Each structure stands twice: as C-alpha cells, then as structure tokens.
C-alpha cells in the first residue's frame, strides 16, 4: 500500500481545480450577457442626452425648431421690438404671470428657448402667429406672446422652459 502525503498534489486535486475554473468561466459567460441586457438601449441613452445648438446662423426674428427627448424645442432669436413688447406687458394682464426676465437667461434677452407643446392639450403651436406675434395653437385657439406666455385661449400655463445653458455666446446646451 502506498501512502500519499497531503502536501503532494494528486489527480483528484487537479480535477477539482479544473472543474471549479471551468464552472467560474461558464458562470461569467452566462452572467455577462445577462447583466448587459439590463442596460438601456443605445437609442434610449441618446434620446435623453443633452444636445448642443449653434445659434450663430439664426437670423434676428427667426425661430427654429430642434428636438430634444422627442419634444420640439423652439429657439427664438427675438428682435429688440419683440423684447420690448414682452417686457412692457403688465403681469396682471397675464393668466399665468411670469416676467420676461424669468423666461430668458440673464444677458441673453434676445434668445428665448421653450418647449413647443401647447399646455392645453399638447398640440404644436405655430410660430409668428396670433395677435401677439408669438405662437398660435390652431387646434383650440391658444395664443402666446413673444416670451411664450399664454395671453388668450384655453391653455392654462405658459410654454414650458427646458433646462438649458449657454456654453458660449453662440452655442447652447439643452438638457
């Protein structure tokens, strides 16, 4: 009879170690795709990502529309006359009183950035329309001024403001 001391490695030890290693590799091979499939889709991540908009090509008085998180964003380069008209409105005349200064970034009064969804039933208003030369919702007649504030119609609130900041004098980041 031969005796094997416990300090020596046997075939059985090798089989235990090899089986454990193959089991660990197999578990990792199963877990990596399982965990990866729980991450959001790339298009979902991109849809919520901030966007940058170059303001340089937008002419004075022009309004452009971009999309952020599947919502239309109106960026208005307001003329001096539009700014003056928005600033002189008495707050007691507004259904949802908000001064023009609270709807723009300080030092950038010429740029108004709003989410282009009517606060009545979610329609998309038309730019440079209505009595106040702001936005007009043809579905139910809501009229907004050049600051995106509700002036007439069934809409209860002003056009909402998205989160945005100026990256430079000619570029903004929305989101």
Q: What overall geometry do the principal axes of the alpha carbons give?
A: elongated
Helix content: 10-25%
How much β-strand is present in the residues?
15-25%
CATH architectural grouping: 3-layer Sandwich
How many separate domains make up the residues?
A: 1
User: How much is the radius of gyration in Å?
Assistant: 30 Å
Query: Which structural category do the helix and sheet elements fall into?
Result: alpha+beta
Low-pLDDT residue intervals, each spanning 5 or more residues:
none
What is the ordering of alpha helices and beta strands?
Answer: HHEEEHEEEEEEE
Q: The CATH topology, please?
A: Rieske Iron-sulfur Protein
**Could you give the order of strands across the largest sheet?**
5-6-7-8
Q: Which class in CATH terms?
A: Mainly Beta
Short key terms for the protein model shown above:
175 residues, alpha+beta, Rieske Iron-sulfur Protein, four-stranded antiparallel beta sheet, three-stranded antiparallel beta sheet, 3 helices, 10 strands, 23% helix, elongated
List strands and helices in order, with pairings.
Layout: H1 11-36, H2 42-48, E1 51-54, E2 63-68, E3 71-77, H3 80-87, E4 111-115, E5 126-129, E6 134-136, E7 143-144, E8 150-152, E9 164-168, E10 171-174
Antiparallel strand pairs: 1-10, 2-3, 3-4, 5-6, 6-7, 7-8, 9-10
